[in-house]
# Entry
Amino acid sequence: MAVKRVILYEVWVRLRRRFETSFGATRERPAILVRVLGDDGEEGWGEVVAGEGPWYSYETYETAIHILRDYLIPLMSRRRAYTPVDFIEATRVVRGHNMAKAGLEHALWDLEARRRRIPLWRLLGGVRDRVESGVSVGIQPSIDDLIETVSHHLDEGYRRIKIKIKPGWDVEPVKAIRRELGDIPLQVDANAAYSLSDIQTFRDLDDHNLLMIEQPLHYEDLLDHAELSRRIRTPICLDESITSPRRALEAHKLDSAQVINVKPGRVGGHLESLRIHRIWYEEAGRPLWIGGMLETGIGRGHLVALATLPGVGYPNDISGSSRYYESDIVEPEWVVENGYIRAPERPGIGVEPLLDEIEMLSRRRIVVDLP
Ligand code: OSB
Ligand code: MG
# Structure
């Protein structure tokens, strides 16, 4: 199907609670929403997950707008039909900028699924109609705050807790959770804040039956992670380091990690996510799960769809709308029931973006008619 117009909305959304990681804290964040209009009146939606600054990766919401407006969208032509495969081919000349690519590619997938009147998760090859929901808990001001927050999320039914760690906030919070809350499903995420010289910290964490330690070392590293995983029992999970199918293959061959999370924004979209899924799960037989970037309900719809794939062997960083926002920008909102989010039977991502709300939250709106 042909696409005649792409609209980018720069919206700013306010999190219910401040979210702190080893690389910084966020309360209000930008989201670039990508809306593609087909020549048949159908439309599709995606979301760029790049942050306000280049902290998680080098991309920012501003670089994403630049790359989308000045390179990716102009590489598409209205005279051609765009399946997601065509899109990847057409934009291959742009190196990197995976989050910008994914925002547009996701919108094309949503459009394709809506045109076929099927849920996106079925189009992607999903095998389950509900996905396991975990929650990612930011660094807290105190151990008391941490215990209270984690208890609250357990009461809400979340199937596993992930806490963010950094030097000075690592072994103590884990010990406190084990002491106060027992053997709950627990993992930690360092967002690349350590090096191999911190081996003693990892040995201490190793005694607490964690499901995994996520991205402990440098954000591009594969070699030191392989070394670390030989020295401790707790599985290593890679996040930042896995930016492409090629990197996933290297991580498998080097034994850098036992698990990876797949964030479609980080790897350039659903097609690249499926390629990683083939390498990591189908060929290597290793488990994965779907990571999040505090997405609005639009981006979360794309995560839910991916999380229905086989091989998703751990709970995902996909929480209910109310964990992030006072009100989400989709209808219906995403809800967690008994620890699961239902994969919708409606076409596409299965939720409708609230256009009035989105227009109201937009600080910028860029309309590009395809050449
Ligand atoms: O490392 O997984 C991460 C949020 C922003 C940037 C990086 C990460 C995260 C999260 C949040 O952990 C997961 C979520 O969206 O619930
Ligand atoms: Mg992470």
